[in-house]
From TrEMBL:
It holds the Pfam family p450. Coiled coil: none annotated. Heme binds at residue 394. It comes from Channa striata. PANTHER family: CYTOCHROME P450, CYTOCHROME P450 FAMILY 27 SUBFAMILY C MEMBER 1. InterPro entries: CYP11_CYP27_families, Cyt_P450, Cyt_P450_CS, Cyt_P450_E_grp-I, Cyt_P450_sf. This is Cytochrome P450, family 27, subfamily C, polypeptide 1. One of its GO terms (molecular function) is heme binding. Keywords: Heme, Iron, Metal-binding, Monooxygenase, Oxidoreductase. Belongs to the cytochrome P450 family.
Amino acid sequence: MSPPIGLDRTTKTLKEMPGPSTLSNLIEFFWKDGFSRVHEIQLEHSKKYGKIFKSRFGPQLVVSIADRDLVAQVLRSESAAPQRGNMDSWKEYRDLRGRSTGLISAEGEDWLRMRSVLRQLVMRPRDVAVFSDDVNAVVDDLIKRIHVLRSQESDGVTVHNVNDLFFNYAMEAVAAILYECRLGCLENDVPQETQNYISALHLMFSSFKTTMYAGAIPKWLRTIIPKPWEEFCHSWDGLFKFSLIHVNKRLTDIKAQLERGEEVKGGVLTHMLVTKQISLEDIYANVTEMLLAGVDTTSFTLSWATYIGLVKETLRFFPVLPGNGRVTQDDLILGGYFIPKGTQLALCHYSTSLDDENFVDALDFRPDRWLRKDASDHVDNFGSIPFGYGIRSCIGKRIAELEMHLLLTRLIQKFHISVSPFTDDVKAKTHGLLCPGAPINLQFTDREI
């Protein structure tokens, strides 16, 4: 495709853009299991092909951007309703089951309508601060759970595979905010209903590579290899079933309160059910997707943060979402290349986070790089935007920060935390999200008061 008439003749076309061949990509991802090394492949390709390069996954052309300023250009030029990357498999499931889309999977006016309702409830710090007591109650239970787990070890201080512990904490805390109830994730015996949800969530991420990249896999292959798609649908069935149980329970309680003439008070879910600003189907979809998005993202970050240090530098070193997708809604000139409307972009956040051009000594873990000299000093850097940017940034950012900051503060107050000698050097791997590639075992030693 040639650039439109009138553009600078130095502007290059997509055909001239470098990048790996389709065959090498297929070998890398499907033969060498590159899906578990997406973050590493970002770095390798940006060094080999430059800060902007193209890749093909079957019929899907993707332009990858590993340059901070080009990422900023894309995000700052977005419309009122930016379009995410390919979510066709999510939408296909919803069409198949007659389900609505939520904030992760919706686009256009539907997304904008739901976002405008939900942002009023969870985007401002003062709105999220009201959940502090609920989250602190979950922290209390986590600390009790640490005492139980370490008492089972011969040294009396070690907790094995803390990501399981933090996963249960994150799920309990998010549910306390979204569902306005406790799930029992931190109890000695986790309720079966909650266990079923956890199994569905794990199944969802295990089927990630065959569904998020469904554009590269012809649908006719499902008749030959049906298992991946069946597991994907089964996992979503489990996630939606869980949400329906808890949303319907709260709805029943609200109706009973109204019949008794009582004032109805509550949090996020109650507000949505009472105001009816979005439909019941939209509520099912949004709480399902928000719980899905808010558990592993928080638990992985907590695992890394207790393993190596503080939250903001941890998120630079290990961005939970190593890359993000956008579809261009207008023609763009990026890095000297003409990018036509409708092109799939991949924003390579892992690569930009570890680029020395963006951060001095980028491979060194230095939390002090984020300190402000005074109130006017801003350390904003598009090289590291773990919660995204602009109107399509993470709607749960404040909730995640509340959960992480409250927990880490209280853990540090109560324990000396150190890495157990049973822990090997832990590398990152991609499993849908960027996560620890091996168990992290920590020692929690009581501080003297």
